[in-house]
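Revision sheet: structure tokens.
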Amino acid sequence: MNSKLIYIAEDEKNIRHLIESFLKKEGYEVSAFETGDALYEKFQQQPADLVILDVMMPGSSGFIICMQLREISNVPIIMLTARDSDEDYISGISLGSDAYFTKPFSPIKLVMQVKAMLRRMEMATSATNTDQIQYSDITIHPSKLTVFCGKEELKLTHTEYSLLAFLFENKERAVSRDELLAKIWGYDAVIETRATDDTVKRLRKKLTAINSLVLIDTIRGYGFKLSVKGD
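Predicted:
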């Protein structure tokens, strides 16, 4: 049995119960809410290990709740939407969601995504045998899931952290998109392919904003590789 706690905010009863039943069959502890506001109130009292948010709900939208959660936690967040629009996708990713599913979606694929996210989290927190991973002016502390540029902390979502840590662990070589999809997202799908590139874009912006020397170079038609400014 899994001891992980998952919160779901979805106003459509059938979808909410479907997701809840699939996750409970996998042994997860699940609490489901009709609104994001109710989920956020509960999260403040008892944080969950992963959150699934519908975008359009009564009260605060999933985007608002995602933003509020990001102010207090780096919990993995999966967003659900009935509209397959680039605007929704970009909004969710830019606010810090880790994955994005458009309705109708496969509940089996959603469960696979949940498993992959929680597995990555367990692997990261259990990496106590490595005190730190350093490349140029960036230092990663795996046991604390923190990243620093000098003495300044780089605030990352869970997926951003996982992707950067994987690139650091493989800093001597280029990493393909397919490998990132398998290691970070857990499976291959069109939305995950987009999420990989957008996650890299967000990481680049954050590294630039903190004046880091570390670059994430695109290897056309293949993937990404770390480099250092001036080298």
